[in-house]
Amino acid sequence: MKKIKAAFFDRDGTLIKDVNYLSSLKQIEIMPGIIDLLSNLQSQNYKLFVITNQSGVARGFFDESFVQKTHEFLTELFKSKNIFFEKFYYCPHHPDKSILKKYLIDCECRKPNIGLFLQAAKEFNIDLSESLMFGDKILDIQAGQKALCKSFYIQEILKTKDFEKGLVYE
Q: What is the pTM of this model?
């Protein structure tokens, strides 16, 4: 079976504006320019995924059901714009700032570790070396690079609009 290529995205600050621990779906605002980038990637046969650290769960700001509800909302919001995500992956842990013992873990799924990339690769038969990672923080870039993906700061990509020329993929 042929492996697929993926485009991985961080969530807050990359797909949607970062509001410092989302607490309501009403706070969700799609980042300017992101729809064009996602559409371009889909047209180049990239499958879209989200890989996000959600330490707000560990810190007690919200629970996992809110994260899942948020991802369901985002799935529908992007679908209404003809953008289709295969799956949202998230890490609810924090190695030292958790108020809940079950989330107080130095895990492999928290970026810059690559556990969620490996999980996606296994579940969807992804060739990570042919895949891309977009994020707004150094942790996103480090994780993408460790996973062997070409990695990009979203701020730079959206500012230069290089994706419109296909330069991102070379």
A: 0.94
